[in-house]
Amino acid sequence: MLLNIENIYKYFNGELLLRDISLTVEDREAVGLIGSNGCGKTTLLNIITGKESFDRTVDGLGSVSISSKATIGYLQQSSGLDSSRTILEEMKDAFSELYEVKAKMKAISVQMETAQGDELERISAEYSHLGAYFESRDGYRMDVRIKQVLNGMGFADTDTSQVVSTLSGGERTRLALAKLLLEQPNLLILDEPTNHLDFETLMWLEDHLKSYKGSLLIVSHDRYFINKVCTRICEIQQGRIYSYKGDYNAYLLQKKMRDERQLKEFEAQQKEIAKLEDYIARNKVRASTAKMAKSRQHMLDRIERIDKPEMYVQPPKIKLTYDIEPTKDIVRVVNCPLAVGEGDKKKVLINSLDMHIRRGEHVGIIGANGIGKSSVLKLIQGLIPHDSGNIMWGNNVKISYFDQQHEMLDRSGTVIGEVQRKNPRLSDQDARNVLASVLIRGEDVFKPVSVISGGERAKLCFAVMALNKGNVLILDEPTNHLDMSTKEVLEDALAQFEGTIILVSHDRYLLNKVVGRIIEIKPDEVNSYEGDFDAYIEAVTAQQQALQAAENERKQAQERAAFEQNRQQSHKSKQQRALDAKRRERIRQLEKEIEDAEQLIAQLEGEIADPAIAADYTLINEKCSQLDQLRCELEAKMDEWAELAD
Question: Most CB within 10 Å of its CB: which of 135, 136, 179, 270?
Answer without folding.
Answer: 179
